From TrEMBL:
<feature type="domain" description="Iron-binding zinc finger CDGSH type">
    <location>
        <begin position="48"/>
        <end position="85"/>
    </location>
</feature>
<keyword id="KW-0479">Metal-binding</keyword>
<dbReference type="GO" id="GO:0005739">
    <property type="term" value="C:mitochondrion"/>
</dbReference>
<dbReference type="InterPro" id="IPR018967">
    <property type="entry name" value="FeS-contain_CDGSH-typ"/>
</dbReference>
<dbReference type="InterPro" id="IPR042216">
    <property type="entry name" value="MitoNEET_CISD"/>
</dbReference>
<keyword id="KW-0001">2Fe-2S</keyword>
<protein>
    <submittedName>
        <fullName>CDGSH iron-sulfur domain-containing protein 3, mitochondrial-like</fullName>
    </submittedName>
</protein>
<dbReference type="GO" id="GO:0051537">
    <property type="term" value="F:2 iron, 2 sulfur cluster binding"/>
</dbReference>
<dbReference type="GO" id="GO:0046872">
    <property type="term" value="F:metal ion binding"/>
</dbReference>
<dbReference type="InterPro" id="IPR052950">
    <property type="entry name" value="CISD"/>
</dbReference>
<keyword id="KW-0411">Iron-sulfur</keyword>
<keyword id="KW-0408">Iron</keyword>
<feature type="domain" description="Iron-binding zinc finger CDGSH type">
    <location>
        <begin position="86"/>
        <end position="123"/>
    </location>
</feature>
<dbReference type="Pfam" id="PF09360">
    <property type="entry name" value="zf-CDGSH"/>
</dbReference>
């Protein structure tokens, strides 16, 4: 599949497992794995595609940097228990606009999307293809 075919498949929902990470089941995960998930030092991907958000000039926003917030892309305080070493990034837009805010948490230009999600999607695709040939 070429890259444009992959993008079309992604938008049509043919690769749903690449768009949102699957939550861990508490019954199937070991206790050490659960502890590492509950107390992470690295951000987790909230979604594979960026969030399109309308923001207002002068209003303060807190972008979730850890990926654990239920109010993505904004912080709801979940980092306090799930990832205490990762703090949200606070920003104030200078004018009303629509922004693309990072959801994969791999951007080099936080909180804005820089296209890093394409690398994350590609890595997930490679992992799934390798899993087929094991």
């Amino acid at each position: 599949m070429n890259s444009s075919g992959f993008v079309v498949a992604l938008w049509r929902g043919c690769t749903r497992d690449l768009i949102r990470p699957q939550p861990l089941s508490p019954l199937s995960a070991s206790s050490s794995m659960m502890q590492s998930v509950l107390m992470s030092t690295q951000p987790v991907s909230a979604a594979r595609l960026p969030y399109r958000v309308k923001v207002s000039a002068g209003k303060r926003y807190a972008w979730c940097a850890c990926g654990h917030s239920k109010k993505q892309p904004f912080c709801d305080g979940a980092h306090r228990t799930a990832a205490p070493t990762i703090s949200p990034l606070r920003f104030t837009p200078d004018k009303d606009r629509t922004l693309m805010l990072c959801a994969c948490k791999q951007t080099k230009n936080a909180p804005y999307c820089d296209g890093s999600h394409l690398k994350v999607i590609f890595q997930d695709l490679v992992k799934s293809v390798k899993g087929v040939f094991k």
